[in-house]
Specification:
Helices cover 31% and strands 27% of the residues. By secondary structure, it is of the alpha/beta class. The chain folds into two domains: 3-250, Rossmann fold; 263-341, Nucleic acid-binding proteins (OB fold (Dihydrolipoamide Acetyltransferase, E2P)), CATH 2.40.50. The strands form two sheets. Strands 1, 2, 3, 4, 5, 6, 7 and 8 form an eight-stranded mixed beta sheet that branches. Strands 9, 10, 11, 12, 13, 14, 15 and 16 form an eight-stranded mixed beta sheet that branches. A hairpin with a 4-residue loop joins β11 (276-283) and β12 (288-294).
């Protein structure tokens, strides 16, 4: 679809939404849940919770936030302000919200038609608890110019509250991921903003400044509803794997995590070699390490546990040994692994 045809034709919006709406919904839900369950974000003590969704489209990201916040027991009234250049998409957003009020009680939606590729909409400083850009950064800063992306994100961040977060979610393309994380590193080094994720203790993505075979992104396996599967079957596109990258920027200092190898984010697939399972993790000190566990220590339940691990999981080790100048970490058994995120 061209930029103009997507925003002006109902059929284009619906066809595009068949594939991207459920994906955007799920990836936004993952990231927002992490801010609450792992990063310790808490809603305002009183008054409304305010969300700004830039490049909202037909509303998957913003509406997913309304639903997730209610699921997590946030009781404040919630105000969602959605901005997009497509009036038709915003009309769908309003209709979906109105037709499904039982999913997000005590919430309101306002919309604003604005072309983000030209200017950012004027907003009151420090007004929002969350600002979302869900696969819409390309509308604000085209290409992978790190300085331009950093400038745009720094400008957008001015509207978040002291306790608020700027949440940017992008496709898991290597060049896009590196650009996003380099821009986030520049911002955190040169402004009053802190990085709250995806890594720990305010540290930037190590892949952004080093050569590695990996780049920072999540891969989540999910079984889509049968209706979604059937609608997308003619496209021949994978709808079971969610692949995305994200950053969290805020004004408050992030909560601390253990330094060293004991807390890690899994950043590679889990591979099975002769006698071991192994994967790459980024620790609380942002060091890249290889983690391994010997298969002979595992029973059936242990093998099943390893099979369920996904790229993006955050783990805490109760026991471990280090080798090769701490670049290799050996885990004695799955009993030594606690999954911090996703919880449950």
């Amino acid at each position: 679809f061209t930029h103009s045809s997507y925003g002006s034709r109902d059929l284009s919006i619906l066809a595009y939404g068949n594939f991207f709406f459920p994906r955007t919904w799920m990836q936004n839900s993952f990231v927002l849940a992490e801010t609450i369950d792992l990063r310790g974000w808490k809603g305002p003590r009183k008054g409304p919770l305010r969300i700004l969704d830039l490049g909202a489209g037909s509303g998957a990201g913003g509406l997913a936030a309304l639903r997730l916040l209610r699921d997590r027991g946030i009781e404040n009234p919630i105000q969602l302000h959605a901005v997009d250049y497509s009036g038709k998409s915003l009309s769908y957003l309003r209709s979906i919200h109105a037709a499904n009020g039982h999913l997000w009680p005590r919430t309101t939606v306002t919309t604003e038609r604005h072309d983000l590729s030209k200017t950012l909409p004027p907003k009151t400083p420090h007004a929002y608890d969350f600002v979302f850009l869900s696969s819409s950064l390309n509308e604000i800063s085209s290409g992978t110019d790190v300085s331009a992306v950093a400038k745009s994100l720094n400008e957008i961040s001015k509207v978040i509250k002291t306790s608020g977060l700027l949440v940017v979610i992008e496709p898991a393309l290597r060049a896009v991921c590196h650009c996003l994380h380099r821009a986030a590193a520049n911002i955190s080094e040169s402004s009053e903003l802190w990085l709250h994720g995806p890594y720990f203790n305010g540290s930037p993505c190590p892949f952004a400044s080093t050569k590695s075979r990996y780049h920072s992104h999540e891969v989540r396996r999910r079984t889509p509803p049968e209706t979604v599967r059937r609608l997308n079957q003619p496209l021949g596109l994978s709808i079971q794997d969610l692949k995305f990258s994200f950053i969290l920027l805020g004004r408050k200092k992030p909560i601390p995590f253990d330094q060293g190898p004991s807390v890690l984010r899994l950043v590679s697939p889990v591979s099975k070699r002769k006698g071991i399972y192994c994967f790459i993790g980024i620790g609380g000190d942002t060091e890249e390490r290889t983690y391994e566990i010997q298969t002979r220590t595992l029973d059936v339940e242990g093998h099943n546990f390893i099979d369920l691990l996904e790229r993006g999981d955050v783990l805490r080790l109760r026991e471990w040994e280090t080798f090769e100048e701490s670049r290799l970490v050996r885990i004695p058994s799955t009993d030594a692994i606690e999954i911090l995120w996703p919880s449950g």
